[in-house]
Design goal:
Helix content is 40%, strand content 4%. It has 285 residues and is mainly α. It has a domain at 107-199. It is elongated and about 85 Å long.
Length: 285
């Protein structure tokens, strides 16, 4: 529906001057500020996973845990393929298990009492789970699963309690072990509070569907102040759209690497040249 509005909802096929991927970018990134329906739907579903971690004692979460055989001690929903789990909840919880997903990749676990964060599988000490960062240390541990408080908590800057290793470390492994201790000891914990979540895709640390849509649409590009000037309302919409197309090197010519003025054919076609410097345009003015 949005595409038909942009490209013209006529019965005949029209030319799409700009790709849909570019259109759904925010205006300050050279797009038109529209959103991708699939991404927007995913961003709204992710909000349930976010609330699941922030509201552990709420009535709706207790109902979900009871209905879906959930674990009240986990901070994020666990994807399951059991028959009694609805397909809606499967779609909500599936991206949480994928570390490459934009939502999950930007999630950080803030350590509190350590009762809800998985020691090995949750990214609480670094941007990646400890099991992935310190694979050799993980292989030497006797305890492969458990919450952070089952492995110990930091008291006065020192890790209070630790689990035994399967064997003594070799000399060449001790630096690796010290690095592991430094990483987990550098995390500040608030033992008087519960574990919580932070989303690094937003400067406030809070997840919102809008910030996820912007993060996915921008594709790691940087905002340009030029695009903000286009949408100031000083010119008619047709002029704004022409400026956008010109800035994106899409003025209706397929040879985007060699764009010549269609009037004088002596210079590259730019907004300044077309309106002011072109000899043909100058005669018209």
């Amino acid at each position: 529906m949005v595409g038909n509005f942009i490209w013209g909802s006529t019965s005949s096929r029209t030319i799409h001057w700009v790709s849909w991927k570019c259109i759904v970018k925010p205006k300050e990134f050279g797009g038109l500020g529209f959103f991708d329906v699939n991404i927007h739907n995913r961003s709204l579903l992710n909000k349930w996973s976010w609330r699941y971690g922030l509201e552990p004692n709420s009535m709706w979460r207790r109902v979900i845990d009871a209905k879906m055989d959930g674990n009240p001690r986990v901070i994020l929903p666990v994807s399951t393929h059991q028959r009694n789990v609805s397909w809606i909840w499967r779609n909500i919880s599936r991206p949480v298990q994928n570390r490459e997903d934009v939502f999950t990749h930007n999630l950080r676990f803030i350590l509190g009492d350590g009762g809800s964060i998985d020691f090995w599988n949750d990214p609480w000490a670094s941007s990646r789970p400890l099991k992935e960062v310190f694979l050799r240390i993980y292989a030497h541990f006797l305890l492969k699963e458990g919450k952070v408080n089952e492995f110990g908590l930091k008291e006065n800057g020192v890790w209070d309690k630790f689990i035994r290793l399967r064997r003594p470390l070799f000399d060449w492994e001790r630096d690796y072990w010290l690095n592991f201790l430094n990483v987990i000891s550098s995390v500040t914990n608030h033992s008087a509070s519960s574990d919580c979540l932070k989303w690094e895709g937003n400067s406030s640390g809070l997840y919102t569907p809008k910030t996820l849509c912007e993060k996915v649409s921008c594709d790691r590009s940087s905002p340009d102040s030029l695009w903000k000037l286009v949408w100031t309302g000083l010119a008619p919409p047709k002029v704004d759209f022409f400026t956008i197309r010109s800035g994106l090197r899409k003025p209706g010519i397929t040879e985007s690497d060699l764009i010549r003025c269609v009037l004088c054919d002596s210079c590259d076609e730019t907004v300044d040249h077309l309106l002011f410097h072109c000899k043909v345009s100058w005669n018209i003015w």
